[in-house]
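testing teh design pipeline on a random one, pls ignore if ur not involved
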């Protein structure tokens, strides 16, 4: 194919005379180059049809050729598709779309389509393999195949599709043709058999990511699988070049994610949340290729653009400048346009706009002319938007374990605003509202919470709000297990050594001497029925009053007190003199774990003892309370357990208390 540029013979005498005076203005053959941007795009988000988010991405990345999947728009009329192309790509773009399918594939192109068609995909009924032969500059045509492999099928199914495509391309396209297969492969990994089959005649090198170095290559919306590809034939892969955007260069091509890419002013009108709106299918994948070609019968000094004007985002009331760099013989004349209308007085290489307002948002371009011809720049869009500003920062807070922490932020700026909450600098999945609730807070949730707020015009990060989880470390004084440390099947043997924690059990009156049968069979509630020992006693004094007396007598000790815990025994309640004595630091949380023999409905051998177990449990806990620092208080659950136990009856202990009575008080401020 040859690109012919001719200057008409209607030029006036003065222009021809000028051409003659300058010399060297004769038509000739010249070599030039062109960069093609090719995109794989399954960007539907509306059931499935193309909506604003996907169209923004297509417009912002400015592809020359798109292998598009699920090609539905509006009512799918010719007028609808023409409107889609005109407003998203430009009036010079053309397209091919498969017919007879519910989610057809297609090709959108800046260059003329010389031929196009569809091959049947035997594994899926709702789309085929769309192909088009494009009349790109130079002597070679470019063959593009838009594919959407079997999403619900197996890796073997997708490999069958890849094999079929390989055979179809071999049979229908010329040998060594420039070919690009692009689209949604639905592959779980890049090592799937289908990818290996494609790589026998196409190139997957380099692999695009979302960063200039490193980054993620996964392209489905959750960003965990490599679904989408742009694969050139080996004959065309040598034309690969880095993808260049206004402020960034991607040497391997680009996986575009609007939540990752910055600055979004490079790709206006893309919004931060476009790649992840509800229903969005995948990320866009872009690769650029350079074509060198020859222009015949062209004037060598006609104007050509070196640097196109760049799209911009500006705040209301700010100043904006568009510029273009061009070259050509003689004087270059500029005329800037807003939409299709010429801007009066805008006749230099720079267009300056002051105090811009919403009515000035739109597309700007410039026509550059000289005696040899003219050239029109690509449109540069101006978006008027105010960057987000935080007017109320999230606040630090302190909560108890099990409670909820709610952080809120208030911000202004051009809508929509997008929120991403972070915990210690890392994004919290799904935390994308103006408030964030951390339910059932645990100690591991303590740390710094912040939020990043973005919109078209930029982003802002909140201050960090500190979440403190007010939990005191429980201190186990002792857990008594009167059974043998190693079960021996004997109910007359046991130990007074605590199984965990620390404490001292003393033989004080009323018990048999050590080693003389001080252990006897314990409560039937003990699951170790074959090795169930209890402390054997021989008297039954008034336990509660004895406990109170011991507690009062110990109050002179500033740092510790003697508290009596009374285990149940064989046939009788333990006497006050026969006690387990614990050293209680006055300012630490308490965990008092009772021995198994104490966990019976009533005293063993005495179903209705004079003093019930619950009453004694209340007395013990209240005595413990009396020894604590005034700055400590019992949590509500502990208080409820004390007050709900009947004072004179002898039912089983509540289930939560059968294994242990555990109390971890929380510190409170003096004002409370």
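output:
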């Amino acid at each position: 194919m040859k690109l012919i540029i001719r200057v008409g013979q209607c030029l006036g005498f003065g222009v021809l005379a000028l051409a003659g005076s300058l010399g060297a203005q004769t038509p000739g053959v010249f070599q030039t180059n062109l960069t093609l941007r090719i995109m794989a795009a399954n960007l539907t988000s509306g059931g499935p049809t193309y909506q604003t988010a996907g169209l923004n991405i297509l417009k912002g990345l400015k592809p020359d050729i798109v292998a598009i999947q699920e090609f539905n728009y509006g009512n799918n009329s010719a007028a609808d598709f023409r409107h889609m192309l005109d407003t998203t790509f430009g009036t010079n773009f053309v397209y091919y779309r498969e017919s007879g399918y519910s989610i057809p594939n297609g090709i959108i192109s800046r260059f003329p389509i010389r031929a196009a068609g569809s091959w049947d995909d035997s594994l899926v009924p709702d789309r085929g393999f769309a192909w088009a032969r494009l009349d790109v500059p130079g002597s070679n045509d470019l063959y593009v195949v838009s594919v959407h492999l079997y999403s619900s099928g197996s890796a073997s199914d997708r490999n069958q599709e890849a094999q079929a495509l390989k055979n179809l391309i071999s049979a229908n396209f010329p040998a060594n043709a420039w070919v690009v297969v692009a689209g949604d492969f639905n592959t779980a990994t890049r090592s799937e058999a289908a990818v290996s089959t494609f790589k026998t005649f196409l190139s997957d090198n380099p692999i695009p990511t979302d960063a200039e170095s490193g980054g993620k290559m996964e392209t489905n919306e959750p960003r965990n699988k490599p679904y989408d590809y742009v694969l050139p034939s080996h004959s065309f892969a040598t034309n690969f070049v880095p993808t260049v955007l206004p402020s960034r260069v991607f040497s391997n091509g680009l996986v575009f994610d609007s939540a990752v890419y910055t600055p979004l002013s490079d790709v206006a009108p893309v919004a931060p949340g476009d790649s992840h709106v509800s229903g969005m299918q995948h990320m866009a994948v872009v690769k650029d290729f350079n074509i060198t070609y020859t222009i015949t019968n062209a004037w060598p000094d006609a104007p050509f653009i070196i640097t196109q004007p760049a799209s911009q985002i500006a705040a209301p009331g700010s100043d904006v400048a568009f510029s273009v760099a061009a070259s050509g013989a003689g004087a270059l004349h500029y005329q800037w346009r807003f939409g299709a209308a010429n801007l009066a007085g805008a006749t230099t290489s720079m267009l300056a706009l002051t105090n811009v307002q919403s009515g000035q948002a739109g597309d700007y371009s410039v026509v550059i002319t000289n005696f040899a011809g003219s050239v029109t720049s690509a449109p540069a869009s101006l978006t008027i938007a105010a960057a987000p500003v935080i007017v109320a920062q999230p606040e630090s807070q302190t909560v108890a374990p099990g409670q909820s922490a709610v952080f809120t932020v208030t911000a202004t700026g051009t809508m929509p605003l997008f929120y991403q909450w972070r915990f210690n600098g890392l994004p919290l999945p799904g935390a994308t509202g103006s408030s964030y609730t951390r339910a059932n807070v645990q100690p591991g949730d303590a740390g710094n919470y912040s939020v990043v707020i973005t919109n078209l015009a930029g982003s802002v990060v909140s201050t960090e709000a500190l979440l403190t989880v007010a939990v005191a470390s429980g201190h186990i004084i002792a857990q008594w297990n009167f059974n043998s440390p190693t079960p021996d099947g004997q109910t007359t043997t046991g130990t007074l050594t605590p199984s965990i924690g620390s404490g001292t059990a003393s033989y004080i009156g009323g018990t048999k001497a050590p080693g003389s049968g001080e252990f006897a069979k314990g409560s039937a509630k003990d699951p170790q029925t074959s090795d169930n020992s209890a402390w054997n006693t021989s008297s039954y004094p008034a336990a509660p009053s004895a406990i109170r007396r011991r507690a009062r007598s110990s109050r002179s000790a500033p740092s510790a007190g003697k508290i009596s815990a009374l285990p149940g025994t064989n046939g009788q309640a333990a006497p006050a003199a026969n006690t387990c004595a614990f050293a209680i630091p006055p300012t630490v949380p308490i965990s008092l774990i009772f021995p198994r023999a104490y966990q019976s409905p009533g005293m063993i051998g005495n179903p209705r003892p004079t003093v019930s177990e619950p009453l004694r449990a209340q007395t013990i806990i209240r005595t413990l309370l009396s020894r604590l620092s005034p700055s400590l208080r019992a949590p509500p659950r502990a208080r409820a357990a004390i007050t709900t136990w009947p004072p004179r009856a002898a039912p089983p202990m509540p289930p939560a208390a059968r294994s242990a009575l555990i109390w971890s008080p929380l510190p409170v401020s003096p004002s409370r």
